Amino acid sequence: MSRTIPPAGDPKRVPPGQYLVSKFPVLSYGPTPPFDPAKWDLRLLGEVRSPLTLDYARYKALPRVEQLSDFHCVTTWSRLDNRWHGVRSIELLKLVELTPRARFVIVWCEGDYTTNLPLEEFLAEDVMVADGLDGRPLEPDHGFPARLVVPKLYGWKSAKWVRALEFSAVDQPGFWEVRGYHNHGDPWREERYDDDDGSDSGQT
Q1: How many beta carbons lie within 10 A of that of residue 5, not counting itself?
Q2: Which domains, from first to last, does the chain contain?
Q3: Nearest C-alpha neighbor of 158 from the set 177, 190, 132, 130
């Protein structure tokens, strides 16, 4: 279920159980992968009429935006007003036609990392594949050249080093989800672990 995020300056801007940081901590599963623009690509596949593979040049040529959003890590830190630069998810969906069966997005990343989202969460206006942060290219440790940014969910859903977006008829819990993390991950409901009930309590 979608949530309305309070505006900047509102004391309710930070979800329950979180504390603010100014720097952006680096937390990753596995090492930072090497990047070769001649070999890198991004695939859109699954429940689409025609699967598509974007090479790096075509990916970089897509329409881009800058937008501010907050980031909430399940390890309880939050960083506000991150200025991301990248391609909105709705822009990527202009490149393929989904079948009526598409209901989820499975995000495939370097190092066999995956995470999962309902399609409606992926298509939110503030969701993007980012390659810039705060006016600079995204650092490799933070996911360059392609990091998913899903501001309304905990940071492990904002997967680093994205290589494929699979549109699926069925949900497929990802790396952390099968290891005890909540399948949805709404920070405002403290959906941290799979036994959290999602009630309101007050890979980063």
Answers
A1: 17
A2: 36-189 (3.90.420.10)
A3: 130
**Residue 133: which of 204, 38, 32, 28 has the closest Cα?**
204
Residues 152, 112: Cα–Cα separation, whole Å: 24
Helical (H) or strand (E) element with 58: helix 56-61
Per-residue pLDDT for 203 more than 70?
no
pLDDT at 17: 95
How far is 167 from 46, CA to CA, in rounded Å? Answer: 5
50-95 residue pLDDT tens: 999 999 999 999 999 999 999 999 999 999 999 999 999 999 999 9
Q: How many helices (H) and strands (E) does the chain have?
A: 3, 11
Closest CA to 162 of 103, 191, 193, 122: 122
Q: Find tokens 């680093």 and name the residue.
A: 160
Question: Using omega within 30 degrees of 0 as the cis cutoff, is the peptide bond preceding 145 cis?
Answer: yes
Task: Write the pLDDT tens digit of every residue in 32-52.
Answer: 999 999 999 999 999 999 999
What is the rounded distance in angstroms from the CA atom of residue 156 to the CA atom of residue 203?
Answer: 4
Residue that the structure tokens 């909540």 belong to: 182
Cβ-contact 181, 192 below 8 angstroms: yes
Which has the higher per-residue pLDDT, 150 or 2? 150
Decide: helix, strand or coil at residue 188.
helix
